[in-house]
Design goal:
The chain has 19 helices and 14 strands. By secondary structure, it is α/β, with parallel strands linked by helices. The chain has two domains: 202 residues, NAD(P)-binding Rossmann-like Domain (Rossmann fold), CATH 3.40.50; 201 residues, 3-Layer(aba) Sandwich (Rossmann fold). β13, α19 and β14 form a beta-alpha-beta unit. α10 packs across α12. The structure holds nicotinamide-adenine-dinucleotide (NAD) and uridine-5'-diphosphate-glucuronic acid.
């Protein structure tokens, strides 16, 4: 993973000046900002647009509104070199570039369906400002057939002069180029992708996108737009399926006295299975898996297919959180007025993102039972404070542990592995750890005098049979 400092290396050596293109990214969030910075880093001239004016002002001063390892030094350097600029004007961005990426949010509606309002707004605004050929690329995660709707929106909103003149229609292309980066390792992932998926309907669009990504020397999968959009939903849903499978296995492990870590290791050596995304825990969270699984289920329903498998994946994921809370209730007995310490709030390590973090549901359930909650997260406390009223945010893990009846590990930050657990134990009222991420070595914790409970470590005995 990239920490601060050295710039990530390109597979093929330094950027090739000849491939420099003028590119705009609309939406400077977790994906848009990383995409903009990385495309500038590989040699392009990039304009990043966001309609959040205070965010753009901060970015212009080099202040990054998110925590993402490795992003800050790159951004500062590229801005100095004038390869990367920020604006609130889609008009300016559209006029000055040939390739325009849409990277705005696609949140869930109540029905689970993706809300494409932001995508439509941006497509319309690009269209009214078009004055020459443009390639409009969906970078946001969108359901299949969105490309056709974007194309239609653009056609309907082109400036009058281009619509009215016979044969004078403005040429443009729409393409899909889903993003597979993970938060916390976004720069590294973008610079070294397993593959780049390009969904296109014309040779010109394919050539332009090949040129954009040429310096990365990555495997490129070219397909039509519908398939590219589907690849993204299918990929995220498959990864979510692996996690839920591991979580379901972890429940059996607890019932029969097996260890899910060993089971995952034993399965993972099989190249057809692989070890990654088999970590059992309190379930997947974040801004994407829960939303994209919902959207894929909804898309399938609307298309006439009942995706029962994926519904079960979602159900297992929800159950992991309630199961964890019940385990705590089982061991602590009465929750009311107990003080519970929480290490980790973000939905995963190395990010400050609290969107759909499992910690939110777990903490709220315990608060509902009357628990007092103290917490620490290296990066997410500011964002978490708004989501979790009543939680006392502490300056470090030791302050969390002081006087607690138990400690929960909800995010596997590396620094939590390296704590002085003797000191932690001595300051706790009851030395009990519930490790929702299987971060710590169970035997070592027990040796230190803790009652230790992981997920699927086969240590619950008959009490663990309660679900
Ligand atoms: P985000 O909320 O962090 O960023 C979206 C940005 O778009 C915000 O800054 C918002 O102000 C801006 N925006 C909204 N409407 C706009 C408009 N009309 N003009 C200009 N800017 C506008 O979202 P994100 O996490 O970056 O996700 C963006 C998309 O990428 C989603 O579809 C998501 O599913 C997908 N995706 C996300 C990740 C990830 O790790 N976060 C990875 C792959 C794909
Ligand atoms: C995920 C995908 O990994 C990316 O490829 C994709 O681009 C992105 O979603 C997206 O579309 O937004 P991200 O959500 O950033 O990336 O993070 P992950 O590392 O995938 O973790 C997602 C959640 O699954 C986290 O809550 C994590 O704790 C959990 N997880 C992950 C597990 O519970 N077990 C695992 O084995 C792996």
């Amino acid at each position: 993973m990239i920490s601060a400092g050295p710039a990530p290396l390109l597979r093929g050596g330094p950027p090739d000046e000849r491939v420099r293109m003028k590119i705009s990214i609309i939406g400077a969030g977790y994906v848009g900002l990383v995409t903009g910075v990385c495309l500038a880093h590989i040699g392009h001239e990039v304009i990043c647009v966001d309609n959040d004016a205070p965010k753009v002002q901060k970015l212009r001063k080099g202040i990054i509104p998110i925590y993402e390892p490795g992003l800050a030094p790159l951004l500062t350097r590229l801005m100095k070199q004038q390869k990367l600029v920020f604006t609130t004007s889609i008009k300016e961005a559209t006029r000055k570039s040939t390739v325009i990426f849409i990277a705005v949010g696609t949140p869930s509606k109540k029905s689970g369906e993706a809300d494409l309002t932001y995508v439509e707004n941006v497509a319309r605004e690009i269209a009214v400002n078009m004055d020459s050929y443009k390639l409009i690329v969906e970078k946001s995660t969108v359901p299949t057939a969105t490309g056709q709707r974007v194309e239609r929106t653009i056609r309907l909103n082109l400036p009058k002069k281009f619509r009215a003149r016979r044969g004078g229609e403005l040429e443009f292309d729409v393409a899909s180029n889903p993003e597979f980066l993970r938060e916390g390792s976004a720069v590294e992932d973008f610079m070294n992708p397993d593959r780049i998926v390009i969904g296109v309907e014309s040779k010109k669009a394919e050539q332009l996108l090949r040129e954009v990504y040429k310096p990365l020397k990555a495997t490129i999968v070219v397909t039509n737009i519908n398939s590219a959009e589907l690849i993204k939903h299918a990929s995220n849903s498959f990864l979510a399926t692996k996690i839920s499978f591991a979580n379901a296995v972890s429940r059996i492990c607890d019932l029969v006295g097996a260890d899910v870590l060993k089971v995952a290791e034993g399965m993972g050596y099989d190249k057809r299975i692989g070890r990654s995304f088999l970590n059992a825990g309190i379930g997947y969270g974040g801004s994407c898996f829960p939303k994209d699984v919902d959207a894929f289920i909804r898309l399938s329903e609307k298309s006439g297919y009942d995706f029962g498998l994926l519904k079960a994946v979602r159900q297992v994921n929800e159950e992991q959180k309630t199961h964890f809370v019940r385990l705590i209730e089982d061991k602590l007995w009465i929750i009311k007025n107990k003080t519970i310490g929480v290490l980790g709030l973000a939905f995963k390590p190395d990010t400050d993102d609290m969107r759909n973090a499992p910690a939110i549901d777990i903490i709220q359930a315990l608060q509902h039972e009357g628990a007092r909650i103290k917490a620490y997260d290296p990066q997410a406390m500011e964002r978490a404070a708004g989501e979790l009223p009543g939680v006392v945010m502490c300056k470090d893990p030791y302050a969390v542990a002081r006087g607690c009846d138990c400690l929960l590990i909800l995010t596997e930050w590396k620094e939590f592995k390296e704590l002085n657990y003797r000191k932690v134990r001595e300051s706790m009222r009851q030395a009990v750890i519930f490790d929702g991420r299987n971060l710590l070595a169970d035997a070592a914790m027990r040796q230190l005098g803790f009652e230790y409970f992981g997920i699927g470590r086969g240590c619950l005995g008959t009490e663990g049979r309660r679900t």
